[in-house]
């Protein structure tokens, strides 16, 4: 049994929030450069070059890539041999988020209730926390700040087995087609297949943690990802929806077993600022 | 085509603009997003004055990040515009000449742009530091309680955007996609 004081995780969360918002992953930069070469639209090329300039500037000036520094989505992998001591684990995570968003000059984008009051909580808490218990005695923390513009284009659909893979592909491509320029293309498309209603949505979010350099380890899904990517880029939406050949940089699928009656499909749309950073304690 | 605009805007300035033109704005822009728009429209409905003179002005849909020390503003890219569609025609009727945001507008907003000879300009979403560099001054002029959603008056120099809807009813979100669809 290893003891971890929850106070130890506060500075780790603080730094992850700031780093994720200032420094885009190398995989995004590499992919945008690849697509820049193939982009046929002049406006599209112009937009992609502005995005590259912006990633460089945000890192240099230590300012967030996007003013929408997102909801703080926190994925925890907690080793089953870890004993958390020294206080409330969830409160420690929220304290780390509070400090990161304050000290990093990040925007506070949370409102206290979704409909009636909508009062800003002023410190970007509460974080959205998902914890998995895993073997071992380590604690892995991943922060994935998620903006509202792309999140609003996401959807869960309870499909029928009879719809088949064609039905799934059509649903995803249609969802992206209806999103147009709203989610800040070029986007990354996260897809969760199976589980049930809520698990499919969580899978689609988790799928976005993959690097754009990595292929799906399952060749069956890798093929479907390629098919969807081609169809999405054939929509012509292009960078920022102004027309072009670069609508999506990648498509990620995560799947789980499901009920004999069900075929849940979730699409989580991620803007080009595909931000996520991890640390292990 | 590159175009340079100075505020307040006049109809003659906008007659030359075509969708796809790159526009650089110098002068004043007012910011507002969901919550501020709701309040502005309530004022108009009650026949009260807006917190700024709308004539020939530009509204920028943005909720900026806080200003780091020594900078006038934090990252300040556009937010998605369709959420402001229900409010936009009333503000154009009140005299505003341009909106800056990202993503397509409803037919009602496009019709209102034709009627009021106004334009919609797209800034690059997620290029929030590039945009912030063109903002030289920023001060909250209304609704401070809304935090990032407060209305700010910004002084800008060569604020970069692209004409998405011109005064003739053309829409880059429809035209552009048609050209690259396979």
Task: Describe this structure as you would to a colleague.
The complex is a heterodimer of chains A (281) and B (182). Chain A has 281 residues and is α/β, with parallel strands linked by helices. Chain A has helices at 9-22, 26-38, 42-61, 89-103, 148-151, 164-179, 197-207, 219-233; strands spanning 2-5, 71-79, 82-85, 128-134, 139-146, 155-159, 187-195, 248-258, 263-270, 277-280. The longest helix of chain A is centred in the first third of the chain and has 20 residues, at 42-61. Chain B contains six helices and seven strands, in the order βαβαβαβαβαββα. Helix content of chain B is 26%, strand content 27%. With 182 residues, chain B is an alpha/beta fold. Chain B starts with a strand and ends with a helix. The chains are: A alpha/beta (281), B alpha/beta (182). The interface between A and B is large, with 51 and 48 residues.
């Amino acid at each position: 049994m290893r003891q971890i004081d929850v106070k130890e995780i506060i500075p780790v969360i603080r730094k992850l929030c700031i780093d994720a918002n200032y420094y885009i992953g190398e995989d995004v930069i590499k992919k945008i450069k690849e697509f820049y070469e193939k982009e046929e639209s002049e406006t599209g090329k112009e937009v992609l070059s502005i995005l590259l300039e912006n990633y460089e500037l945000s890192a240099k000036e230590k300012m967030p890539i996007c003013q929408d520094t997102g909801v703080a989505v926190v994925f925890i992998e907690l080793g089953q041999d870890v004993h958390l001591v020294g206080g409330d684990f969830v409160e420690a995570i929220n304290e780390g988020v509070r400090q990161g968003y304050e000290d990093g000059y990040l925007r506070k984008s949370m409102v206290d209730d979704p409909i009636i009051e909508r009062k800003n909580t002023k410190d970007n808490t509460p974080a959205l926390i998902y914890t998995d218990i895993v073997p071992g005695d380590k604690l892995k923390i991943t922060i994935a700040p998620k903006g509202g513009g792309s999140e609003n284009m996401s959807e869960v659909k309870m499909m029928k087995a009879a719809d088949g893979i064609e039905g799934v592909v059509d649903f995803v491509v249609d969802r992206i087609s209806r999103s147009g320029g709203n989610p800040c293309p070029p986007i990354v498309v996260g897809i969760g297949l199976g589980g049930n209603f809520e698990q499919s949505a969580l899978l689609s979010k988790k799928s976005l943690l993959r690097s754009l350099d990595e292929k799906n380890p399952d060749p069956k899904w890798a093929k479907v990802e390629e098919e969807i990517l081609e169809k999405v880029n054939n929509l012509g939406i292009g960078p920022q929806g102004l027309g072009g050949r670069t609508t999506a940089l990648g498509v990620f699928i995560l799947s789980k077993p499901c009920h004999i009656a069900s075929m849940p499909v979730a699409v989580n749309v991620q803007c080009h600022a595909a931000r996520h950073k991890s640390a292990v304690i | 085509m590159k175009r340079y605009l100075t505020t307040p805007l006049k109809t003659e300035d906008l007659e030359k603009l075509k969708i796809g033109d790159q526009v650089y704005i110098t002068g004043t822009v007012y910011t507002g997003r969901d919550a501020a728009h709701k309040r502005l429209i309530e004022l108009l409905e009650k026949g009260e004055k807006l917190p700024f003179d709308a004539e020939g002005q530009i509204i920028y849909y943005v909720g900026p990040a806080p200003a780091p020390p020594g900078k006038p503003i934090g990252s300040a890219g556009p937010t998605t515009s369709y959420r402001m569609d229900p409010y936009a025609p009333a503000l154009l009727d009140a005299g505003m000449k341009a909106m800056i945001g990202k993503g397509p507008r409803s037919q009602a907003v496009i019709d209102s742009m034709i009627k009021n000879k106004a334009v919609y300009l797209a800034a690059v979403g997620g290029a929030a530091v590039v945009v912030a560099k063109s903002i030289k001054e920023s001060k909250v002029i209304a609704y401070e309680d809304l935090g990032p959603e407060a209305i700010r008056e910004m002084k800008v120099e060569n604020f970069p955007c692209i004409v998405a809807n011109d005064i003739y009813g053309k829409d880059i979100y429809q035209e552009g996609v048609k050209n690259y669809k396979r």
